[in-house]
Amino acid sequence: MAKQEALKTAIQCRHYAMCKIDFLGTGLCPPAWDKHYVSYFPQGRMDIYAALAEGRIPVTRRLVDIAESCSLCGICDKQCYFVTELRPLTVMEALKKWIDNHLQQGLEITDPEADDLLSDLWAIVGQEWASHDPAILVSYAHDPGPFTGIQMPRYVVLPGSTEEVSQVVTLCQKRKIPYAVRGNGSSVMGFVFSKDGVVMDLHRMQDIQINKKNWIVSVGPGVSAFDLQSEVSKEGFRTNLAEPAALVCANIMCSGIFSTYSNAYGTAADNFVNAEFVDAKGQIFHLNQREAPNLYAFQHEEMPLPGICTRVDVRLHPKTEDEQGLLIPFAEFQDATAFARELSQRRIGLALAVLGLEYISTFIAPTVELAHKIKRVFQEDLGMEYAVLMIGDSYAAQAIKSMSEVTMDGEMMKTLILGLPKLVDREWQSLIQDLEGSQRPYETLLKSEMLPIIKAILLPSPGSLAASVTPDLQEFFAELYSRPELTDMVWLNDFRIISSRMGRDKHVVAFIVYVPLDNIPLIQEINREFQKTADEYGIKNDYGFLTPLDMGKRAVLEYDYYGDHTDEEETQRMQQAVMAIGRVLEDFMLRYPGVKWIKYVFNQGFSRKESFLYT
User: What is the rounded (10 degree) CA torsion for 226, 228, 234, 237?
Assistant: First the structure.
């Protein structure tokens, strides 16, 4: 029974790589600090245990070292539960027990012999940083994406410099062996694998150099969004970054980086000043070299990787002391989107987004169960379906409050977050039932003058919210939510640690589409087609968010499909749904200028945004 439970947890790993960043201040899994291979992180051990249980890998000396290096400290349980509600510590215990039993029984321990190519890789990076051990390879072999499957590489190599990357590429070209480049693997769509080839993991290259005078920060390819934001925030800056575990160089290459701050800071080439690459022949070039390949250009076709980005000089943006967040609730999508567009056109706010309730409820609730209940409260009790998020200074906040009768400020959001469990209680329901008039409940209840009453009913506190999680983690969650940043809309948008919860219920397949913001009916039609297609195949789905771009002329839209990647039948339905909606999106692009599926921006993230927004 224990083995079955451990396996059930192990195969549910979402591969979001959140265990590779210290986003809760708990520290990292101790061996991970200097080992770097994914196998030494909780995510890797989950993959290893699943592979052992399914008979896909043997016990090797490296596997023994991986298992024995785990101290059962429990950091992984806190991190993973916060994001997915999974408890990986049971898997770590099961892995150690498996290896202990194997050793006690005197069973075979294999040690794969080095071949010529591995020896050549060792000559480049050192013996510690290249491996063909199955216990290393298996953690680079799959992700939860619906089209991925098992793609076992032959080698994994961790270069430590641009020169070493160049030499590895040159070697692979000489030996005619395929290679793939891996950031943190958090794209989870099968893009970072090399079946029977080489996977190049850039995790060791974590250099950060801040140049305050030139308003840039030079970033190595192993630096995550969370770690970069942490460093620049100490100097009073922010950078425009995406998901916290995503590696910055890889994220720019893949998608150009978009976030709620793209309203003010832009996307793609707006994010950087220069970048360094290693091309397919192993040659090193910089974007600002006159003879360099023109990566600022865009072609409307699926493009191969133009090179490996080994450094990027990212733009820094100053923060002001009066920055704050507001949520403006709406019942209708068209009203929320029109309002967000107006704010963008008027240059009001830095970050802007039209958020759906699936996002809002999932992000602020620490459990799936509570998120489902809160979503119902917002929809059925308050009459609210969307909210416009704004991050800006006090002048922006003042302007918005003059434009909208109902705004939810930082104190209101902190009250709601810390009082979430009581939102489903009878006293809150009684307050709503006592309301009279033609207005929607949120238009009355969420006004600022109602805050004292809301506080009296919800009794918000870290302990109250913590009571909704599993008992043995309640003390940890109470301490965690005592920290002001966990309820601060500005901090949460800068560091985005709660957005990783979007795949908590099931693995998420996110569809990103650039759309013309002056045609809201078209955007609504695209959303309806997303929903219609997913419903046809029985796939859970929901609207995600929309952020204005280029002062309200365009926007980036996300719609999400959710599937259980461990269910073969559901995965097949997800595959069919993805292919079907792909055909729909192709048709939209043919019929409407300004509609662009991010599929065509992939590997062209260094291009100018104008090249794909207006073509």
Answer: -110
| Token output for 575 | 């595959």
Cβ(251)–Cβ(225) under 8 Å? Answer: yes
Tokens 């290249």 appear where? Answer: 130
The confidence band for 291, taking pLDDT boundaries of 50, 70 and 90, is: very high
pTM for the model stands at: 0.96
pLDDT digits (tens, 9 = 90+) for 67-116: 999 999 999 999 999 999 999 999 999 999 999 999 999 999 999 999 99
Q: What is the dihedral of CA 537, 543, 549, 554, to 10 degrees?
A: 60
Rounded CA gap, 440 and 381, in Å?
A: 9
Residue 557: CB atoms within 10 Å: 24
The DSSP result for 95-133, as a single string, is: HHHHHHHHHHTT---B-PPP-HHHHHHHHHH-GGGEE--
Domain 506-615 of CATH type 3.30.70.600? yes
Q: How far is CA 523 from the centre of its chain?
A: 24
**The pair of three-digit structure tokens given for residue 473, joined into one six-digit string:** 């983690």
Distance CA 180, CA 171 (A): 13
Looking at residue 188, its pLDDT comes to 55
Inter-residue contact 75 to 22 (CB < 8 Å): no
Query: CB of 354 within 8 A of CB of 497?
Result: no
% the chain with pLDDT above 70: 98
**φ, ψ of residue 300 in degrees (nearest 5):** -80, 70
Residue type, 432: I
Domain locations along the chain: 2-104, 208-318, 321-488, 506-615
User: 208-318 — its CATH code?
Assistant: 3.30.465.10
CA distance 249 to 278: 13
Q: Please state, in angstroms and rounded to a whole number, the distance separating the CA atoms of residues 107 and 94.
A: 17
Output Rg (C-alpha) for the chain, integer angstroms: 24
Measure the CA–CA gap between 131 and 117, rounded to whole angstroms.
10
Residues 373-414: pLDDT tens digits? 999 999 998 999 999 999 999 999 999 999 999 999 999 999
- Cα separation of 221 and 238, whole Å? 18
Distance CA 574, CA 507 (A): 11
Q: Residue 533 is inside which H or E element, if any?
A: helix 520-536
